[in-house]
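Usage

Read records sequentially. Each one opens with the input sequence:
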Amino acid sequence: MKTELKRYFGARAVLGDQRPRQRNRQFHRSTWMTSPKDSWPRFSRPGISMTLLESKDGIQYFTFEHSRDYQQVQFKFLDAVESMDPNNIVALLQLNPYHIDSLLQLSDVCRIQEDQEMARDLIERALYSFECAFHPLFSLTSGTSRLDYLRPENRAFYLALYKHMMFLEKRGCPRTALEYCKLILSLDPDSDPLCMLLLVDFLTLRSREYHSLLQLHQDWEEHRNLSQLPNFAFSTALCHFHLSQQEDTDPEESDKQRQIADQMLQDALIMFPGVLMPLLDLCTVQADPAVTSHSFFGPKSQLGQPPALAELTALYVGRTFNLWREAAVMLWLEESVKEVLCRVNAKDPLVEDCQNKRKQRYQSAPRNIHRHVLLSEIKEATSSLPLEVTTQPVMGFDPLPPLDSVISYTRPERQHAGASNESTLSLFFRSLLPNFNLQGGPRQEDDTEVARAGQELNQEVNRLMVAMRDMLANIRFQEPPREDNPYRDEEEWD
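and closes with the structure output:
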């Protein structure tokens, strides 16, 4: 990541005053994914280890495991989450500064409060804790190490990698982010629990690794049907277009790439007509009246989409619209749209064939796609999630857990004094609004009372978030420097 940043901005702008002063140095284990910071608390193993479950056909299957002490901390974390009081999570993290789920949860809070630096730091600390627990045979680069997402102990590693990847992308390091994307995909390429295939094309285009994406499409199309995903249908066409525009390309090769790009984009528009108008809207481009008035690209193309296709379309458009804003790309899109309308008017058999495929497929999306949409936080996509997802509680440290999870230990039953049958949502509202009562009898409330309650709820939530930000700003994990470290390595930071 630093190499990529230095290439763009120069070493001095990136490094600044990061080199720690000699007497305040702490000494951490050397790691690949993150660079330990001198401001971090002194590391002691939090109770996470990694075990090799089996080796088969050149593939190694690993899993993280939690010690008894770590399990107790995990139970306290779940209690803290249920209490709806962020003070409890902060207190837990002060006692256990490398507890993974607490780091992930507080990182989300910091990010919401736009404290990106602390949010990123907490994720990096989580990754450092994981890497210190790696099995000697576990490899980040070989592509032969697997982690089963069905095991809860492994999920936090996936989520930490994903969040770190997104921070890298937002910092202008798409190539490094792409490597993390490939890493996540390699951990379970068959199940792809975070659906990285919906993201890898975007990062590859951002990195201008056009041949890489086309090779992936060629290698995986037969067994994964990538062309059925809107993102691959459009992004592979965009790859060929950019290859045709490169100055060092032979004219004959350039013409060949452009012809392929034209054909692929037209096919993508015929298969996924619902992409065009939302894409133009986000690009702030006014479509030609001949396009908006045509039934193929008009409002009917959005309204007639199956639920899963609407979700995939919204995700692709919301994530990649900036890639289409370039003038040359938009002109190419305009030409392709006109050609598609000619094919539609001429009753091209592909049009009806694609229409039948859309009706048969995309009726419901698998759980990993919903999980990816939630993690993406792309509003165009999250608004298209089905009710069975939006009406259930979603925890940031474990969004939409698999229904067939492999549980290695369970949380003990808790005895609630004066237990009631109130739901978690009811308890949450009652914690914010003391007068909130879901269990009582029916009450006649007018619109004024409802509006006042909603306003009070918003005020309480805002107070809660302000208090959380103040607490986070006042956390100090720095420990006094020690000069008696027997494992001191004078060259570690040089």
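Summary fields computed downstream for this record:
- Residues 447-474 form the longest helix (28 residues).
- The chain is about 55% helix and 5% strand.
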